[in-house]
């Protein structure tokens, strides 16, 4: 039977170690076998899941990979859930994606079981596969829908970004080629596994190549630095916030420890930054400290990675390089003119097999996101001496904090449920560590006052911790334009004063 290329390659990697965690090492063969059993459980007598949505909440490690592959092998569309999501957010994702089944690890299961009961969804707990028997699996063609990742943006609620197996294969192959992935590579995985950075760039590229992943439940600078000093890895990928945090962690270390960690970093084959702008000062500081020139790249959930500094050649601070193999890029002005000279900036538009299929159940939004077959990213860039440089975004309502993309509109909608908030405006304020930090200007209801600590507590359980505003400003009214619309740039200025 023809297997999906991802599975075929994994089978080919056989007894090599695919992933290690603090509970042991797991081979490709072992994980493939688990995924085959899980596929049988999911099929539950059907011949093919035919792209029905299967959500999953698994800790990073062998069971996460087995869940993803198991869903694909049964013909399902995989919906990774966020381990940091609140119950409300999980319910939204499960409803919006029309998931019929949820796979959860036994430790996550108690929380998710209540949600499944309420939404009448079938819950498969990872352990159930122990008693499963193998069945014939369907032949799954690469044109089919494979994965749906939720991303926030210019609409208030997150949208499901649907990619096919062809899209995913194109995204992986482009990076494996550009960044010279090898089967003897070893990489740490500490990024969240409901976003493309962790799922495709780190996990899927490593697995495609037959490399070894060491997975962690979260980013812990001390643990990561200890393993770096032990030469645990050859490749390292992180968001800019992590490099900032590592640089500041060096300051509090003894000379001996710092030297050992820095030497570990300097021996790596490749270190990459992305998901948000890497300040040139951090790029340069990292080189001063470790001798490593970080490779900065640019991407997006909808397109995978699009631009990258070169593996060989100049890795320019403040720039994101050139189009990756197989990816077409153009810049367009807001009047629709395609830019051909270096002096003009415009919106990055992308075409290629890497570009997603659709926003789930939102044909209008999908159609509006393309122009003549090119995906409109909403990011503005310029080309300087042959290198693309990101200049910002066309929407003030998108905030990037710690590498997470947040919708100001979604956060505002939650805050407006607060009994003391009459009006609010959420903006991103530049921040050295987080890139941007979530700030909100609020107009309290008459006779009430709003405290930051009270608001933070109120938000917990309603929105993921990384979306909660860190700065609060009480105002009597919000700046508006002649049409009565809140002027976000003017709101930003309120925080400067
Ligand atoms: C957490 N904190 C924040 C914050 N997040 N403060 C301000 N802004 C934020 N965004 C606070 C917490 O409340 C806590 O404070 C303290 O910081 C530590 O919290 P934490 O959760 O333990 O932080 P940490 O684990 O250190 O998280 C930092 C991080 C994480 C950088 C590891 O944010 C992360 O994993 N980011 C990556 C997201 C990602 O993968 N994005 C890719 C999307 S795909 P206190 O007071 O309680 O101690 C994409 C496409 C592409 O973008 O191109 O890749
Ligand atoms: P997401 O929607 O979470 O996939 O985030 C994608 C967005 O992250 C892009 O649209 C950019 O705004 C931003 N981004 C990713 N990489 C970079 C980078 N290297 N520099 C600046 N912004 C980036």
Notable characteristics:
alpha/beta, Rossmann fold, binds adenosine monophosphate, GMP Synthetase, Chain A, domain 3, single chain, binds malonyl-coenzyme A, 497 residues, 3 domains, 5-stranded mixed sheet, 5-stranded antiparallel sheet
Structure write-up:
The chain has 497 residues and is α/β, with parallel strands linked by helices. The protein has 3 domains: 5-140, Rossmann fold (3-Layer(aba) Sandwich), CATH 3.40.50; 196-393, ANL, N-terminal domain (Rossmann fold, 3-Layer(aba) Sandwich), CATH 3.40.50.12780; 398-496, GMP Synthetase, Chain A, domain 3. It contains 15 helices and 26 strands. The strands form 7 sheets. It has a 5-stranded mixed sheet. Strands 16, 17, 19, 20 and 21 form a 5-stranded antiparallel sheet that branches. Strand 1 and strand 2 form a beta hairpin. Helix 2 crosses helix 3 (62-73), helix 6 (165-178) packs across helix 7 and helix 8 packs across helix 10. The chain is globular, with a radius of gyration of 23 Å. The termini are far apart. The relative contact order is 0.09. The mean pLDDT is 96. Adenosine monophosphate binds at residues 151, 196, 274-277, 296, 298-301, 320, 377, 379, 390, 393, 400, 405.
